[in-house]
Amino acid sequence: MTPTIYSELIWALSRKSLVDLAIKNLDKLILQYNYIPSREPLYILLSYYADLGDYQEAEYLINKYFKFITIHEQSESSQQKCWQFNFSTILMKAYVQALHKEISFRIKNLEEQIKKNTSLITSKENMNNPLNYLTKDNFTQSSFYVSWKKLLNEVKLSNSKYNKDHFELTIRFHILSNQINHQEFPLNEALNMIYEMKGDGIEPTFETFKILLEGHANSPEYNSSKQTLQRIENTLGIFNMMKSFGYDMNNIEIFQTLLDSCIPKYERFTDIDFKPIRLKIKEKIKHINNLIKIHKAKHNQKSMLTLLELYGCIHSFSEMRHIWFDMFLSGYHRNLNFYKTFIKASSQNIRESTYCLDVLRHQMSKEYPPVYPDLETYNLLLKCCIKCDDLITKKQITNHIMKHYSSSQK
């Protein structure tokens, strides 16, 4: 095969994620001709590993084929003249994606911990992740971060100034790092980077703003209910900045993040002493709901569930019931997660606990399709029994649990 045919084959295999075959043919090409006729196939191959967050493999391949490419040189494709193949950008993307995967896992794990009141779990899917050892204390000394800083220095030496991709990937890395060490990587610095980017005549993409929003919604900088209002103010400020850049805000995912920012992260459904700010949080929730209507974004099941949880967090039980009936009228299926959220919030109040026991638990079987309670749901109902001192219902539920789960184990 000619070098051009080899190049096209490697490109095609990489696009189809057949990377082992692509690497095999790349080695054959170099063995036969000792050069790569274009950078496109290698770029696509590296992109595959960057998307996976496999920064180690991406680095290995760049080092392996280093003499055949110029890592920080931008080059135009012979097939796609408008493309720029910047290998430093690909490597930066691999690092950012690796950190993003780790942080996403931790946020998901934290959500499960909060919902189930259990300790953090290291699941099998994360056991092989090379970043699961990162902590606040060791992050800046870790080989991962040291390698990232080395890469940034190389990029700075090879470019007179950052291009758009360099800026955005650096900002994203900073935002994600905030989840591990918010003191070393405060979010206001990420915002300053965006201003610097704008000062250089480069507009941040919608995705970077979205990551900045999500960073505020999940940041440990706001790890108490008293700081919830500040987080909401900051996310609304970013939202307004996005509007000023002319982005179309008809996107429920953006409003989902705004709603998420209203939830106290570590003190949900507990009778904490933040009554003075409950009304203010309620005002912000209504403001975000009005923004959803103004921008003609449509609620989905997730956003409705978040609203239900939000009103439960601030003990606005009448609003909870409105959301509950709105879901039914809007045609949403009130699944088990909706019931658990409603019951868990209601268990903090005597009247609402009584409503759950007398009405809500009987409604589950009338849903279409029917909703069947699990052990966690029964435990939440028992909390309602304790709250309203309903010993008769408590005995009924206990007997049902014993009968159901003892028979299922036979």
The amount of helix comes to: 55-70%
- State the end-to-end CA separation: 66 Å
Biggest β-sheet strands, sense, barrel: none
Overall structural class, as computed from helix and strand content, comes to: mainly alpha
Specify the number of helices. 19
Low-confidence stretches: 70-83, 118-125
Strand content: under 5%
- Secondary structure: number of strands: 0
The Cα radius of gyration reads: 26 Å
Average pLDDT:
87
Order of helices and strands: HHHHHHHHHHHHHHHHHHH
Based on CA inertia axes, which overall geometry fits?
A: elongated
Keywords: Repeat
GO biological process, one term: mitochondria-nucleus signaling pathway
Would you mind describing this structure in some detail?
With 410 residues, the protein is mainly α. Among the domains are: 3-73, no CATH class; 335-410, no CATH class. It is built from 19 helices and no strands. The chain has helices spanning 3-15, 19-33, 40-52, 55-64, 87-116, 124-127, 143-158, 164-178, 187-199, 206-218, 228-244, 252-260, 275-294, 301-313, 317-329, 336-346, 350-363, 375-388, 391-408. The protein is elongated, with a radius of gyration of 26 Å. The termini are far apart. The model is unreliable at 70-83 and 118-125 (pLDDT under 50).
